[in-house]
Amino acid sequence: MKKKWGLVLVVLTITGIGLFFPSIGEATLGDRTLKKGMVHNDVKELQEYLLAKGEFPYHTATGYFGDITVEAVKEFQKKKRLKVDGIAGPQTNNKLKVLRSGDMGMPIIKLQRLLKSWGHYNGTIDGIYGSGTKNAVIQFQKKMSLTADGIAGPQTFNKLNDKATEVANSTKELTVESTAYTAYCDGCSGITKLGIDLRKYPDGKVVAVDPNVIPLGSTVEVEGYGTAVAADVGGGINGNELDLFFANETSALNWGRKSVKVRVRN
């Protein structure tokens, strides 16, 4: 959906890989009712699930339950035929936490890591619920004598989470070749892979990535650019390349192409 400025060269060096906690098993969405005005880690997780389903159009999961989150919750409630009040209570949260084909982002990264810990997923941790992830879920469900429908719901996660303590979030540092883009090039829609409307939120810090290197939904700290979310892909982004969003063409051209250090957290 974008135009790049500058020839992209291929440079990638993994300089370090580390782990940080809390672990995946400590996610608590659903333990409490969330509503407008709240600031909490649970709200951030709520936003990540909404984003995974294309219902949270903002560029960053902030942890603040504001008007944008209220509207996103309402849209999800409408689609699921729930009471439309913009409040994330037990029914809404339980529906949100059911993952299926087509979902993308941080919740899928966590699902893939859990499946890998059980030996049922050998693919790339890319944050995309595609056929590989669905097949892995089906195989896991068969092993656990669950309904093998390829949908990761509460029963599936109850079993998966038996190994949650073995799976931690991760961070890695890379050196990549970067270019820049805007949302206003010829033929551009301004809508990212995760559904973020960059024309509506020109202040967004968003990067386009190859999910095989940086999973969709990851937080990416880019030298000289700031902290961004990996929310887009592109035909010209392969392997060790990164494309940074800028609000206008002048800023994109000024960035040009350069080798930068990045820290990826997911």
From TrEMBL:
Keywords: Signal. It holds the Pfam family 3D. Residues 205-263 form the 3D domain. Gene3D superfamilies: PGBD-like superfamily/PGBD, RlpA-like domain. InterPro entries: 3D_dom, Peptidoglycan-bd-like, PGBD-like_sf, PGBDSf, Resuscitation_pf_RpfB, RlpA-like_sf. Residues 40-96, 108-160 form the Peptidoglycan binding-like domain. The keyword Flavoprotein does not apply. PANTHER family: CELL WALL-BINDING PROTEIN YOCH, RESUSCITATION-PROMOTING FACTOR RPFB. This is Peptidoglycan-binding protein.
